[in-house]
Structure formats: structure tokens, C-alpha cells
Amino acid sequence: MRLTVPEQHQLKIARRTLFELSDVGALVFGGMTKAEAVQVIERNGTKADRTRLVSEKILAENLTTTTN
């Protein structure tokens, strides 16, 4: 399915919010939250985006379990 121009921009912002910005950076810039970015990527992202999302969730879970 082809995305509209606004959906393409929203997906680009979601990728940047989730994969490039820290939590503090996302708050400072405003706009969508990390949770909203996840929803956008799950809804409109490519297969590579969704794979990266899953791998980063697993990495984050492993980091929190090793530090506790």
C-alpha cells in the first residue's frame, strides 16, 4: 500500500524519534512520544523498520535485566 505524503512525513519523524533521539531529546523537541512513534512504525513502517523495532526492544529488555 502506498503512503500519502503526510503519512510519509509522519513515518520519517517516527523513525527519527525512535531510532535517533534519546528520551530527553524527544521531550525537548516536542512532537510525538516514543510510544506514538512505535504505533506509527507498526502501522506504516516497512518490514525492516518493524524488524529493527523488535531487535531494539529485545536489546532494551536485555540491558534492563542485566543492570537489575
Describe what you observe in this structure.
This protein has helices spanning 5-19, 23-29, 34-44, 47-67. With 68 residues, it is mostly helical. The protein has one domain. Helix 1 (5-19) packs across helix 3. The longest helix is centred in the C-terminal third of the chain and has 21 residues, at 47-67. The mean pLDDT is 85.
Q: Quick check: average pLDDT?
A: 85
Number of strands: 0
The proportion of strand residues reads under 5%
Principal-axes shape call: flat
Helix and strand string, N-terminal first?
A: HHHH
Count of the domains: 1
Unreliable segments (pLDDT under 50, ≥5 consecutive)?
none
Q: Structural class, judged by helices and strands? A: mainly alpha
User: What would you report as the Rg, rounded to the nearest angstrom?
Assistant: 13 Å
Distance between the termini: 43 Å
Topology:
Layout: H1 5-19, H2 23-29, H3 34-44, H4 47-67
Helix pairs in contact: 1-3
Question: Notable features of this structure?
Answer:
68 residues; mainly alpha; 4 helices
Short recap of the structure:
The chain is mainly α and 68 residues long.
